[in-house]
Amino acid sequence: MAALVFLKSMSLMFHSINYHFIKIRGEHVEAWAILFYITHLLKGAVLFITIVLIGTGWTFIKHIIADKDKKVFMVVIPLQVLANIADIIIAESEEGDKEYSTWLYIFFLVDLLCCAAILFPVVWSIRHLQEASATDGKAATNLRKLKLFRQFYVMVVCYIYFTRIIVSLLKITVAFQYTWLNEMFKEMATYVFFVLTGYKFRPVPSHPYFQVDTDDEDCETEVLTETGVYKTKVINRTMVQSTTTNVEAIDEEREVMLSKRESSHEYD
Q1: Please, what is the average pLDDT of the chain?
Q2: Are residues 168 and 73 in the same domain?
Q3: Same domain, yes or no, for 122 and 249?
Q4: Separation CA 222–CA 233 (nearest Å)
Q5: Domain total for the chain?
Q6: Which residues form the GOST seven transmembrane domain (predicted)?
Q7: Which residue in 146, 138, 153 sits closest to 211, CA to CA?
Q8: pLDDT band at residue 208, thresholds of 50, 70 and 90?
Q9: Which secondary structure element, helix H or strand E, spans residue 134, and what is its range?
Q10: H/E/C letters for each residue in 76-126?
Q11: 258, 158: one domain
Q12: Given 194, 210, 226, which residue is the final one in a domain?
């Protein structure tokens, strides 16, 4: 998330410097434009990687990436790179060129496919939490996680819907002198999405993902059954510790009694 914010900041900085030279010279400086396109491409890839990692519950629900999650990465990352390349070609082409319309359709199609693909890990995590809340004893914690993931799912859908559809419709409908509203609303929506995501998944003591289980750990022990066969049973560690303490206390009392008895025999 920190890398995403850093790349986003660098991208905006290079973009503003490029526009500054366009204002002064009437054309952009290639060096600043290239730096902007590089950071813009990396930012787009890291954004979708971050959403997929949060959506899969990585470091929150599980500490490994499953095979189906890896397949999502293998699909989303190349598509997102292709979408950013199409976006760069669109920005460098004139609207009257044939290539402009072709790459514009490619960009919209690929970008929508990426947006649809990143929703699958979130749905899988929600289903996983639903199953865990029904079977696991810690239902309250799982329900809190489930509620948080549902909120994140709604946030992702709203972000995609607003930045991909509403902003595009706004760009088509408003007059030419108000086209800057397109970028303004897009950047504002991105900022709100980043802030809400960071706030929802912030590391606080009351967060359901960072709560330590208060239940005592269980341990295994072998018990001799009536048939003479050893059977493994799982018992509570606290019970084992208390039983061990009681046995040690009884042994100490027995040793004290034996020592007193021996001393009394010596006097006799």
Answers
A1: 75
A2: yes
A3: no
A4: 6
A5: 2
A6: 3-204
A7: 138
A8: low
A9: helix 119-135
A10: HHHHHHHHHHHHHHHHHCCCCCHHHHHHHHHHHHHHHHHHHHCHHHHHHHH
A11: no
A12: 210
CB 49 within 8 A of CB 73: yes
Residue indicated by tokens 């730096």: 35
pLDDT one-digit tens code per residue, 13-72:
998 998 898 888 888 788 888 899 899 888 888 888 888 888 887 766 667 777 777 888
Q: What is the pLDDT of residue 262?
A: 58
Q: What whole-number distance in Å separates Cα of residue 19 and Cα of residue 138? A: 55
Are residues 41 and 171 part of one domain? yes
Range of the domain at 163: 2-210
Q: Is 146 exposed, middle or buried (0-12, 13-18, 19+ CB in 10 A)?
A: buried
Distance (Å, rounded) from C-alpha 158 to C-alpha 134?
29
CB 7 within 8 A of CB 46: yes
The residue from 161, 183, 210 where one domain ends is 210
Q: Which two tokens stand for residue 243?
A: 């039983």
Same domain, 185 and 226: no
Distance CA 159, CA 55 (A): 14
Torsion of CA 188, 190, 193, 197, to 10 degrees: -130
Alpha-carbon span 199 to 172, nearest angstrom:
33
Residues in the chain: 268
Which residue has tokens 């993931």?
149
**For residue 157, how many other CB atoms are within 10 A of its CB?**
13
Place of tokens 């490619």: 106
The verdict on 50 and 96 lying in the same domain is yes
